[in-house]
Amino acid sequence: MKYDKFIKVAVGLIAVAIFFVVPSMASAALTAPTITSVAGDNVINNTEKTVTFQVVFNMSTGTTSTSWIMVNVANANHANSATTTLPLGTNATSTSINIINASSLADGSATVSLWWSDGYATSTVATQSVTVDATAPTLSAVAVSSNNASTSLAKVGNIVTLTFTSSETIATPTITIGTSTDVVGITHTSNAWTATTTMSSGDTNGNVPFTITFADSPAGNSGTEVTAITTGGNVRFDKTPPTISSVTWGDADGSTNINTGDTVTIVFSEAMATSTATTTSLGLSADTFGNSTLAWTAATTTLTITLGNSSTITSGDTINPTSATDLAGNTYSTLVWPITDSTGPLTPVASLAAGTYTSTQTTTLTSTGSTKIYYTVDGSTPTCSSNLYDGNFVVINHSLTLEAVGCDAYSNVTVTPLSVVYVISSGSSGGSSSGGGGYSGGYSYVPPVTSPVLPPIATIPTTPANHPSNGNGSVTVFANDLSFGSTGDDVVALQTYLETKGYLVMPEGVAKGYFGGRTREAVRKFQSDNGLPMVGRVGPLTRGILNQGQ
To answer: What one-character-per-residue DSSP string does 323-379 give?
Structure first.
């Protein structure tokens, strides 16, 4: 009986204990954790796949049970929650939790909520505002320009400017322009950026390269490096001075001499600024282009000059257009180029046609554009050192092949020699012996008839009406042949006579006495007016007309 009573008392005490203790344990409040930071700076970017939370848990001491940590991250477009467990430790334990996948969050503001439970009670909720920015920045309106007169070109010393606009706030970017990293003046107004550099000789010819390396701020998302423009055109860097590739003369009238209407063609190494190359700025060594006209090709690399009637260009003149520039403004590299007559005289013409004859024949030779004619009759190819034709008759007194070439003052020779075959079938004076002049082969060769050599220029006290005057009251008798390159009193007398007849105008300050290009052209006009071949030299026929005073 007493035992049963004891049991009842004990059970009652236990019930009282449970009534008072358990409810108090179940209702005990837990202190909220403290969120120190999220992702270190409370900004989540596109490289932070798993976010780290630095938190402090205020836990009950002496507890050894498991605690449940509840985390929720939410913004306008997404909610993400997770749970984890940690063993309870001492009070004010600090730890980091990696549980949130940032790639699943939308850009914008978000709130991190954190609480914990020990299985009996739950703490109040701790929150932290964060920014989610997982979008990389981009650039638009990427353009380059130059302070050159042509903004699409640059030379050494020009400033090249790079401009672009960022899609959001970015940190100061790293920029290179050209082969140099010496980029200065990186400035911006809001999201509009500008960078400049000065081009140098160390840069490479061609389109100016650049790079822009950038990241947004403050998230630090890196954009894709930009190396190409998105608007406008590239800037082409050119540090190389232009040069001349060739200078050629075009014989438009077929005279084989530089005359009015002929062309001088200059080919440059690159496109040129056409306004910088004119007839007065091509750097002629002598003479002038006069009223010549200029024409450029569409690419402005080739200039063709058509010689006007006041042009005094002769073979051997040179050009050096040091004031000419290319499109970028580089000045012509000093290099002298000659204007050269490279065209040989026309094939000589024999007055006697090829054929079979029964008696001794004679022929004369002419060649347009030549100053001298050379010939052979022994079957060899003539050159400018063969037998010189002196303007008289060539005697054909036996069968032979006459070959001849014309040579001019610039050592040009006829491309296709004259070749005529003469056959003397009977009545000829030929034989089987060698003739004069060094020719052999079983025939006799009669050299050309040579006019007697007259005495040098003589003066007569009075001036008959039918003889040319030398301008000092005396009469000039032309006794010697004259041609390009001749000098002396004979030439002075010839030039004086041609002046009085209106065929020659000597330039002011140029002394007489040299048979040059002007004198040759004057002789040609004189010969044309007097029905003579326009050979441009004074031979027996021309001397005869001169000495008649006509």
So the answer is: T-BBTT-PBPP---EE----PPPPPPEESSPSEEESS-EEE-EE-TT-SEEEEESBS
Question: How many Cβ atoms are within 10 Å of 334's Cβ, its own excluded?
Answer: 11
Helix H or strand E encompassing 249: strand 244-250
Model-level pTM? 0.56
Task: Please give the average per-residue pLDDT across 64-80, as a whole number.
Answer: 60
Encoded amino acid at 332, one letter: Y
CA separation for the pair 437, 447 (Å, rounded): 7
Using only C-alpha atoms, what is the Rg of the chain?
Answer: 53
Q: Which two tokens stand for residue 450?
A: 């040579």
Domains and CATH numbers, the chain: 34-132 (2.60.40.10), 139-237 (2.60.40), 349-424 (2.60.40), 459-548 (1.10.101.10)
**Residue 550 neighbours by CB under 8 Å, 6+ apart:** 466, 530
Q: Are 396 and 352 in contact (CB under 8 A)?
A: yes
- Per-residue DSSP letters for 99-136? EEEGGGSPSEEEEEEEEEE-SS-BBPPEEEEEEE--PP
- The overall longest dimension of the chain from CA atoms, in Å, is 194
Torsion of CA 36, 42, 44, 45, to 10 degrees: -130
Q: With beta carbons less than 8 A apart as the criterion, state whether 39 and 52 touch.
A: yes
Q: How far apart are CA 401 and CA 399, in angstroms?
A: 7
| Cα–Cα distance, 338 to 139 (Å, whole number) | 55
Mapped onto helix, strand or coil, the DSSP state of residue 184 is: strand
pLDDT tens readout for residues 408-434: 877 789 989 999 999 998 643 443 333
To the nearest 5 percent, what fractions of the chain are helix, strand and coil? 10, 35, 55
Q: Rounded to an integer, what distance in angstroms lies between the CA atom of residue 483 and that of residue 373? A: 12
